[in-house]
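Q: I'm a student working through a structural biology exercise. My instructor gave each of us a protein and asked us to get a predicted structure, then write a short paragraph describing it. Mine is Tetraspanin. I'm not confident about reading structure output yet, so if you can add a plain explanation after the tokens, that would really help. Here is the sequence I was given:
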Amino acid sequence: MARGCLCCLKYTMFVFNLIFWLCGCGLLGVGIWLSVSQGSFATFSPSFPSLSAANMVIAIGAIVMVTGFLGCLGAIKENKCLLLSCSFGGLAEILVLSRLFVIVSENAKQDLKDGLALYNADNNIGLRNAWNIIQAEWKCCGVTGYTDWHEALKEKVVPDRCCQEHYQECGRNSTNMFWTRGCYEKVEEWLEDNKHLLGTIGMCILVVQLLGMAFSMTLFHQIHRSGKKYDA
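A: Happy to help. First, here is the predicted structure for Tetraspanin. I'll explain a few features afterward.
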């Protein structure tokens, strides 16, 4: 009976972590695609130049892949050391993502303003494209308003995508109508409108992580009780 429960738990753990590993593969693939096709798709923050969308997705995908692999191997081999590693890996993911969120959100507004100065830099095509897309799609300009560009670019011009009626070099014509709302305000508004959806997604991810850790520790104790004392 105990052996049957152990087998059931083992294969449940294996399937769970296999799905987790496949999700990590998908994230890693998306991150690599972004890095190759979008030119590192821009980091908006000069304080964290490696914190681009592509690098973040690659890092998260790699952590999820490793954790899932450890869980699969630990379950199928009934290896206590690997199961513990999988459990601690899940905890590390939660802590790293929480800390990353705190770091990014603490100084986001000022950091974004500082990043505007890099808009015309030759080695920041990704950042320029990202700002152009965001300002065109969200009908906003700058971080808190179009005057942010005046301070960043040291002249009274804005990117063409800030113009309500877009045409080439329209940003240099001070008589044009520019989008008055800043993109930071638009992002806050979007987050407020979608807070329930985002909260649900966040809770689902947290539950999945906690379930993975619970499966790992339960299987660990079952193996220990069944008399498999080896750790490698």
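A: Here are two points you could use in your paragraph. Residues 165 and 177 are 7 Å apart (CA to CA). DSSP finds eight helices and no strands in the chain. It's a good idea to check both against the output above yourself.
Q: Great, thank you!
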